[in-house]
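User: I'm preparing a small set of examples for a lab meeting where we compare how different chains pack in three dimensions. I only have the primary sequence for this one, and I'd like the structure in token form so I can line it up with the others. Please keep the answer compact; I'll paste it straight into my notes.
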Amino acid sequence: MWHRVTLRSALRSDMTETPTHALVAATYNIHYSIGTDRRFAPPRIADVILSLNADVVALQEVGWHYRGQAGIDQFELLGHLTGLQVHAGLTRNHPDAHFGNAILTGLPVRRTQTLDLSVPLHPPRCALIAELGAAGGAFRVVNVHLGLNPWERRAQVKKLVGALDAAESLPTLLLGDFNEWRRTPTYLDPIGQRFPECSMPESFHARRPMFRYDRIYASPQFSLGHEQVIHAASARRASDHLPVVATVRRG
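Assistant: Understood. Below is the structure token output for the 251-residue chain.
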């Protein structure tokens, strides 16, 4: 039986106390809860999530491509282990597979939607979009896991930007695994124009991070501070990606 984990001291020990109306946001590719030691251990992932002390966490690679491998619902389990609300954006949802992105938060969630970013002949992808309430006012969180092929990512960025341009105007955080090691390839220009601040430290591979796959983008209403990638031993074991964390302030 899985037991709910207790909160350890924050891994981000060098961060100062966040001011009023500041939020802590994180993005984390959990690699199906399989660690660098090849162990399937969701409680380790939950422990890392809790230690971030984040108000909102965007997860990628939650669940199984083939559900029978574990026989459990990782979305439900992570909610139980962390005590946070879990909102799923599934790219596979049938008897043999239950897989996708998730947003975990303790903040009020007003609505969610899933935007299909799939490209023909490539694995299915999506953006999970949630509108959250906070002391400083409502804001939007978008969690993405872009494809492996640059042409695929170009098409996904175009569709995502079009959907956000057509949506209600709200301060927005765009988080996720962009599968891009370059800082600013041209196909990401539409993202950079709409989200002028970005945290993209080297977070992959967990054993020797060299690539800037995991990113937090902020719309002009936000500023990012205390940005870092978490190098704690527990995080290096829990997944092949390391969590990226930033403090988010309005204005």
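A couple of notes for your slides: The two ends are 45 Å apart (CA to CA). The chain has one domain: 23-250.

User: Perfect, thanks.
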